[in-house]
Predict the 3D structure of the following.
Amino acid sequence: MQFCPKCGSLMRPGKSKEGKPVLKCTCGHEVAAAAAEGYRVKFPIRHSERDFIVVVGGNEPPTKRKKPEVDEDERQEMLELMLDHFPEE
């Protein structure tokens, strides 16, 4: 594993225009590599925003997030602030 001397990010394996193994950086810097066989690139799994992690520990059951309770006065005040912020055209 090598880091780029220009920007400090991780150098990743690739091939040069001639087909030789090189280590490339996102900034464009390239360094000749001994062999590309020892390198392996893995991509992380992207989860959607709907996925969530359940932490299991203790005897407490998992709970869902609750919306904060807002009384009518607070709701009316928020509405007035929104209307002030977005004036009618």
In short: The chain has a mean pLDDT of 79. The longest helix spans residues 72-85. The CA atoms of residues 45 and 57 lie 25 Å apart.
